[in-house]
Input
Amino acid sequence: MKKYLEIWNITKTFPTPTGPSVVVRNFDLNLRKGEFLSLIGHSGCGKSTVLSMVAGLSEITSGGIVLAGRQIQGPGPDRGVVFQSPCLLHWMTALENVLLGVEQVHRQKSRKDCIEIATHYLELVGLEESMHKKPRELSSGMQQRVGLARAFALSPKMLLLDEPFGMLDSLTRFELQEVLMNLWAEDQKTALMVTHDVDEALFLSDRIAMMTNGPGARVGEILEVPFPHPRDRQEVLEDPMYYPLRERLITFLEGQAHKEKPAEESARESVPEGAVKTGRFWSALWKGTRTSA
Ligand SMILES: Nc1ncnc2c1ncn2[C@@H]1O[C@H](COP(=O)(O)OP(=O)(O)OP(=O)(O)O)[C@@H](O)[C@H]1O
Output
């Protein structure tokens, strides 16, 4: 496989009052150009930590990350990041929020051209009627559409999505999964997404990397998702491969839930106050067929 993103043997240690806490250890993962890969695992295993190292927002303790042949050494416009909350500037309209990044990335382009780019992506996410509204006039789903448009409009080399629909209700989440799929179909951006939702991962991804539980988490297994693009949700759900693939994900995660931590690591694991994550994943998993946090 030709590697576009190479996460090579990374370890991340956080200092804590009771000693260093190793969140991920010897973590390897490669993505090819244009691939959509989801990272799935239990709450607190280190998914967001990995994503923020790729975003350049968190330092790597050891190992390295290379994107398109260049080592990542900090944040940069070559990576568009979408978080759970879009964090829009409240005094600017949707268009101005998108334009801000576009003008910074395309400094050589005229304002008119930049407006065209921003408008194009806002139209793609279905906000042609609302692009002159301010965030407070938009629903949370519409705000996240602006967040997606903003990330794609930067023309980044890759997209990093950290539970982008985690705060939305199911119907809005489905709608936005379609929006993301359409954006991705137009641009074929290499994408790394963190999610708790196995159905979301199966609908959107080419591959799903399953993380072991921390401390010292790494990729335990990788699942190929064979459904052809463009995908239609109903067709995906009716595909005879769908439930066996879903079962494989759940079996892996269930296996991790029952695995004991190595005594040495258990003793060293320390969760600082305020950084504790809840066990939302598993309570949600067994409450219904859908597995989202
Ligand atoms: N700045 C920090 N200092 C110390 N420990 C941290 C810090 N940030 C994260 N951690 C710890 O690292 C571990 C992994 O956190 P992370 O947010 O990456 O997990 P996650 O898999 O994304 O969880 P969730 O699915 O609940 O969002 C957790 O135990 C967390 O408490």
About this structure: The two ends are 33 Å apart (CA to CA). The first helix runs from residue 47 to 55. The pocket of adenosine-5'-triphosphate is lined by residues 14, 16, 21, 23, 41, 43-49, 196, 214, 271-272, 275, 277 (CB under 6 Å).
